[in-house]
Specification:
2 copies of one chain form a homodimer.
Chain A lengths: L2 H20 L11 E3 L6 E5 L2 E11 L11 H17 L4 E11 L5 H18 L2 E9 L4 E9 L20 E5 L4 H10 L9 H8 L5 H8 L5 E5 L3 H12 L2 E5 L7 H6 L4 H7 L5 E6 L1 H10 L4 E8 L4 E5 L5 E5 L10
Parallel strand pairs in A: 4-5, 9-12
Antiparallel strand pairs in A: 1-2, 3-6, 4-6, 7-10, 7-11, 8-10, 9-11, 12-13
Helix pairs in contact in A: 1-3, 2-3, 2-6, 4-5
């Protein structure tokens, strides 16, 4: 059954049903009491005094994803995680979400229901209940997610993690492993069938997890500077360097890299871990003692990978052969002609 | 200069500059103090206890607009008004906005700056400061706006206007004039050059105004049921009838219609006023006394056009010849094959 056989109203009804059947997280519903839900001109809720965050991320077919290589449930999940990760990078928690879908009308309804299942799964796991949305006609399929977050701390002063507070001499740390998502994508795209299958790398790509608990912990324990790694380490550390007007120096040997990534991509793992996107880990800076405390306190692995320098806008990468590469913090560009 | 000549980072810098140069409304900045603005993973602000609303609207090139017939400043303005009008339909005021732009990269940078000028103009006039956004690569140009609104009333109980509270016997009223935007569009698209130019109708199409003060007044004066007229009177009154499980009866002779619309479209004005979209007026229901009070108190014209009936899902239209047409409240459908 295709969208243009059932029409917009029936589609919206089915997608709303999918959301309510698959959304199970309601621990926030006692704080943020919903007054008007899906199906009106806007959603309405009670809000206590505090601090909020707001972000948006759009994924476009054939640019950010390819439905031949990702199943629609994973696509819905990943669309949510992109925004949940932005909220995590502020030290906040996801609260409410709107989803806009651009559709030609020729899509299978089941495909869209699957996307919404993934959306509801990610909202159930990490927060960000869907309270509104829009379906519009478009030649190109796209998903645009906007998400509101809240500061779960009791402080009357907000202390969001920012990109602009890195200081020379601080150390640079990251959560989790780097390059795993990019490695997983390469395995999924492998047409020769010669690459070993690493479930760990593939799942890093298809089911990334936003570092929400970690972000909240960091904001509450003296860390002020962080970004999420969505475009790749160099690009996102570059955002910090740009906003803080600092440089950075990192050591390849220090990067946390999955053993599968090294063994499957012996000549490419360095590049994948430096510039592979969609890991949705956090990169953050701070005094050595604060970072050591994070390492010993957090469940998620935290690794020191280098330091902040005064050499704005240079990001130096010391590689394993003792030589060094240098990048500018302006980083990767999606539009510029190469 | 095209987007792919300057790249994403320079584009974002230029668009942020356009926003800050053209945004002048900051009366909210003392209540909702901005902690982190544009340029981080998410925007952050202080929020007092109260009630909020959240909505999203997406406009796609060649579906919702055609850049041959609308100038980009007006396009930016209208993209904002679509969401501001949703917030108005709840009786709330616009607070913060995110803007996602889908771009091929071949667009002129000046075109995008003009779109953002229009966005900033509408935010300055009606609220909804832009605090975040996203630019993504897409074959199809689109603009997706998500907007947060707040309840400006001092009540501890929220009293949003809803679609679901219309009752049999209530009267139906609308603000402003109907069909003007659709009439203005016809004049703009007129290739024969024979239609008289009505500045009033054209401006209704290119510079619609959301009914924010009116929505706030209605919510504070006993009205509980409203929707904005974005898809046309029959479609949006249909949303009320669907959500409230009621029918409606309206009289063509009672519809507020601009004199220019009647004179320029003598055989089509009825159709335009019943089903023309993008007027961004409000349609609302209530007891006769409440509506009469709105008529005498509000600056904006309010007109009674009919009544709510028990004949769900039928919307009866009594036309000037004394005959009647009947519509189902499921209304207009964007996807369904005709």
């Amino acid at each position: 059954m295709k969208v243009n056989e059932i029409g917009e109203f029936e589609l919206i009804r089915l997608l709303s049903k999918t959301l309510s059947e698959h959304y199970t997280n309601n621990e926030l519903d006692t704080i943020y009491s919903e007054v008007v839900g899906l199906g009106d001109d806007a959603a309405v809720w009670d809000v206590p005094a505090g601090h909020q965050a707001f972000t948006t991320d759009t994924l476009v077919n054939d640019v950010h994803f390819d439905l031949r290589f990702i199943n629609p449930v994973d696509l819905g999940w990943k669309s949510m995680v992109a925004s949940q990760s932005d909220i995590a990078a502020m030290g906040f928690r996801p609260l409410f979400t709107t989803v806009s879908l651009g559709l030609s009308g020729k899509e299978e309804v089941d495909l869209l229901k699957d996307i919404y299942k993934g959306v509801a799964d990610a909202a159930s796991q990490f927060g960000g209940k869907v309270v509104g949305g829009d379906t519009v006609k478009s030649k190109t399929l796209f998903i645009s997610i906007s998400m509101l977050g809240y500061d779960p701390s009791d402080d009357s002063q907000p202390n969001p993690l920012k990109r602009s507070t890195a200081k020379t001499g601080e150390v640079v740390a990251v959560t989790g492993s780097l390059g795993s998502s990019a490695g997983g994508l390469r395995i999924l795209l492998d047409k020769t069938g010669t690459l070993p299958q690493s479930q760990q790398l593939i799942e890093s790509h298809t089911r990334p997890r936003p570092q929400i608990d970690t972000g909240v912990w960091l904001a509450g324990h003296g860390i002020t500077c962080a970004a999420d790694i969505s475009d790749g380490l160099i690009a996102d550390l570059g955002h910090i360097c740009e906003a803080s007007k600092v440089g950075a120096e990192i050591k390849i040997d220090a990067l946390p890299v999955d053993a599968d990534l090294k063994s499957i991509f012996p000549s490419d793992w360095e590049k994948l871990s430096l510039s592979g996107g969609e890991d949705y880990q956090l990169v953050f800076t701070g005094a050595k003692e604060s970072i050591d405390k994070a390492i010993s306190s957090l469940e998620t692995p935290v690794t020191i990978i280098g330091k902040i320098t005064g050499d704005y806008p240079e990001i130096r990468v010391l590689n394993s052969q003792g030589t060094q590469d240098s990048y500018s913090s302006s980083g990767f560009d999606h539009f510029k002609n190469k």
